[in-house]
Amino acid sequence: MKNVYDPQEIEARWQGFWEEHRTFRAPNPGEPDFDADQPKYYVLDMFPYPSGAGLHVGHPMGYIGSDIVTRKKRMEGFNVLHPMGYDAFGLPAEQYAIQTGQHPAKTTEVNVATYRRQLKLIGLSYDWSREFATSTPDYYRWTQWIFARLYDRGLAYQTEVPVWWCEGLKTVLSNEEVIGGRSERGDHPCVRRPLKQWMLKITAYADRLLDDLGDVDWPESVKTMQREWIGRSEGAEIEFAIADHEGETLKVFTTRPDTLYGATFMVVAPEHPLVAALVTDEQSKEVEAYVQGAAVKSDLERTDLAKDKTGVFLGAYGLNPMLDAGDPEARVPIYVADYVLMGYGTGAIMAVPAHDERDFEYAQKFGLPIRPVVRPVDGDASSEGCTSNDGVSVNSPAWDGMPTEKAKPRSIAVLEKRGCGAGKTTYRLRDWLFSRQRYWGEPFPVLHHADGSTSRVPDEALPVELPEMQDFAPPEDGSPPLSKATDWVNTTHPSTDEPVLRDTDTMPGWAGSCWYYLRFMDAHNDQEPFSHDAVRYWQNVDLYIGGTEHAVLHLLYARFWHKVLYDEGLVPTKEPFQKLFNQGMLTAYAYKDPTGRLVPVDEVEFDGDTAKSGGQELEQVIAKMSKSLRNVVNPDEVCKEYGVDTFRLYEMFMGPLSDSKPWNPRDVPGCRRFLDRVWRIFVDEDGTDPVRPQFAQADAPPSALEGDTLEVERALNRCLKRVDDAFKHFNFNTAIAAFMSFLNEAKPREAITRDQAERFVRALSPFAPHVSEELWSRLGHDESVARAPWPEVREEFLVEDQFELVVQILGKVRGRAQASKEASKDDLEEIARAAVAEKLDGREIVKTIVVPGRLVNFVVK
RNA sequence: GGGGAAGUGGCGGAAUCGGUAGACGCAUCGGACUUAAAAUCCGAAGGGCCGUAGGCCCGUGGGGGUUCGAGUCCCCCCUUCCCUACCA
Prior knowledge:
The chain is an alpha+beta fold. It is built from 26 helices and 34 strands. Helix content is 33%, strand content 20%. Strands 8, 9, 10, 11, 12, 13 and 16 form a 7-stranded mixed beta sheet that branches. Strands 2-1-22-23 form a 4-stranded parallel beta sheet, covered by helices on one side. A 4-stranded antiparallel beta sheet has the order 4-3-7-17.
């Protein structure tokens, strides 16, 4: 038997073993080896988009963390579902395909193979039998099927909407994919255009998406982001009549109906339908130019930091419904300005410059009157400046003297009575723009009839497969690539044989990830998306691990679909992801020369601790891994040089899973040294026995432990306790530190018994599974350590009878003494006094604080 | 502008409750082994001061406060990172 620690050999062999024995397969209800008494636990990683670059060391951080949890849960007797797949539809594959002429199905396949190889290399204990990619017809058939459910419920509709059109990508993008007027992917400029698009009515679920956040165990920061994204705000809609336009009214939304008397002008968005009707001849030229400008050129400026308010007077006047039409104060000018957005509320506002910062700015710039109608609780209304704080209403006859929280409902009641307004809740959340004019996505299972009506493809005719196309580049006119597949587009209705046209849009990249966690429960079902039995057993995801970048979009979309499926009676739970954990970002070191230039890592020379380049000393800073800095680390190389187990340990040893932290290549060997030491404790590298003789025989029962072996037992239990604790907060760095400490403490090595060694290996196995399997097997076990029981902490060995008593004078440590855990407060004080006797000499003790088991503090004069 | 997270040695980080700051690891230095080196093993080490044993002072971004005692709690400020951006 080869006795030198050889990670390459051990790791390849055990990965082969796991594959051969299907060690990590999770049986489903109905399968022969399914045990209904075993509790379930579902640990899910946010599955990757398989890019051409493969994994870098940042990606597997969360995967390793979840794998450790998974492996421990398995050892604790849970039936653990831990699958992996690929989010394989999307823009980058298609862009790459267009550039290289390769079909995206082909490049996706190649990329998936790379990801699979790398994921397997890391020894992640997925149930690979459940693996799938969202771009295969077997999967997207059911994505289309779920879309059909949304369609049937009226939650999917087509409408002409002004959408972000990206000329560079030749597609529409959702609001979320456009940042500052440029595409998130590729950074191309975008413009707004009216186009017919598929929308999903996520707004119908706004309240439930908001309220049910109370039921999930998620980081507060993510919940907050979702709440703000949904952005529920309560207020009122108020109708303003328009002077000289009989019958025409302008409806506004406000959260401060109590400030209605302070409205001194109104503003409508440039896209507001009434702009054309209200503008006077005199103003028409200027208004037209402004509206044009807002639509075309100002995409950047409108969202830009340039908060300088612009706008144009329409020439028309609104009439404040609370004032007599003849009152000159009732007549308020109406402006068109781009700080009001068509997509929110009614696209029109009443402007109350005394109590709204934005209106105040506008009023200042255009010299409009400012009329305060709220005074601070303890002061007078100031005629200058602006405050949006609550206070007490003034100059508001119908609710004068009322505090803001009372004035709001009161004003709504008054408006309702007069028939010119009503309470109203609006949301920042918009309906979800769900179509893309692209090739590489799920086709919509929808047929267009000659009379302009639509129907959906019957369920039994799914999937609607993507047609094979050679040229899938978007046509110049902006029509979808699928429109070029004329044989595919022109078809007949499966039931009626009527000639119909297929819908030529495809679904956005988010679609496939909306329900993949459900498909994993029953990944190869060809009758339904997932069986009732499977989802009844697996329920939902117990632990979902991924990065914060999905805090809003993916998690909100998936929750939305889940709730629709809940309403369909297809899932038993209201929420898909019970506990969410965000791993931190992996950064890297970068080096700055004295001029502040970042120096690529391969140009840096290390002289001990100081980094240099061309004789200049460099400053070490933390930066993202990037190609340009050449500081991207590939897991393949790390695994090759040090071994997979070392790689896994280092990824976890860097710090808490939730923290962002820098990869330091110089720290990696420390983890390898630890594994070398573990190996040598078990195995005599110069010998030929599988393990050292002391581990080859059975031990005395733990109750008979004494001497050094007893000390080892204590150290082991301290270690196991700290390892258990690490799972509470996912700070596995402390677990690994505990293993290292145990090694430092367990001396002499000969005192370690076989039983202790076995428990150590079992505890180590989720972290360093390959070397643990090898040692476990060398200890004489035929079965994988993956199913061995998790070692329990034996509390009786955590109890220490002695401790080091700290003696303080005025809160500063002035001495130490050994004391018994049993000692009374008086005893401890006595011991402490003796320990610092000469320092207390001549000083008067005013007070003594005794903390049993810890310290004594003398307060002296 | 708004929201969130964080700031501890040369570096990554540790410190359930307010109770020995710096565990564990890296880098560094010293010793053992070796012809030598590597590897390994043992040991030192926050900073400053007092010739030493030992002791004293300072020290968790800065400044105040509460407390016998603060990395931890409260107030003010600074810095970094992430998210968000006229949502009426």
